[in-house]
Amino acid sequence: MQKKVLVVPLDWGLGHATRDIPLIRELLNAGCVVVIAAEGKHAALLSREFPEITILPLPGYHITYSKKGLFFGVKILRQVPKIWKAVRHEQAWLRKTVAEHGISAVISDNRFGLYHPDIPCVFISHQLLIKTPFGGVTERILQRINYRYINKYSACWVPDFPGTHNLSGVLAHPAELPNNTTYLGCLSRFEPQPGVSRKYDVLALISGPEPQRTQLETILKEQLRQIPGIKALIVSGKPDQASEEATAPGISQVSHLGAADLNAAMQASDIVISRSGYTTLMDLAKLNKKAILIPTPGQSEQEYLGKHLMQEGYFISVPQHRFRLQQALNDAKTFPFRTFGRPEDMNAYKSIVRRFAESL
Q: Which residues contact 5 (CB under 8 A, 6 or more apart)?
């Protein structure tokens, strides 16, 4: 009998859904039946990639964000009771779903309440240490809470490399790890394709929560129009919509690209401009792409990752309030852009997922 695995991404941006795509593919390759739980644009994205897979409706945490980055952390903290209520709902929902659908295992991408006493349950996270605008004491308290939930799961899969040569820095490499931790290596749905012809000077990937997503879109569209002769593609990060338009001569905009088309567009571009969301960073590393990062204002994780990876020489990172496209492109001409350089580890997750599937 085929084993049925439930996969549930967090509804915090699209990154959790997109990084689950290679895991879902590998589960299918291993002979598992996959069921997804999601809603809204996350369900829309995964439905496009896997039209044959059943998607169960499950409300997300529905976090709202401030218009100004300065208040980002405060607004998130004020919503902790809402998150706690959603976690309790997840627990009740999971018990019912396991019984009704015959679920054999669960893979929860950073959703805290999807553990079950009778079946293997995996928690995925690259944030073992959760960065906040408030620093040390707050981060240590959140880490203890984080580990308390992680330890309820059978395993914790970290999408990064072990050791000092990694993408996430201290986020996934704190002094103390949960006992059930396994590093997956880079987790990307993309594959390098040889012989792709250059098509764009710039590929702009717009992503993340509103209202910051729209603010970045506005900034990039205005500044792209100011550069004569530039060839650019803007991907708006709206998988629940379908639109394509020419916003100016040489500048095209699409609401969404599927994995294969986005894979090709990234490789056909001289440079990528994006948020420093962790899934995007793994995609860039997998394809060995030069990139200019614009962290979401006030989002401590992205600000840390941007600064850390620029210091390591992998990508340029510029705060949104200081971003000037022409200057950033000029800086990119002399930036070293170190190659991540671990192609042998880019598919390490496949053997881990296969062993997991075989164990069910």
A: 27, 32, 33, 34, 35, 103, 104, 105, 106, 107, 357, 360
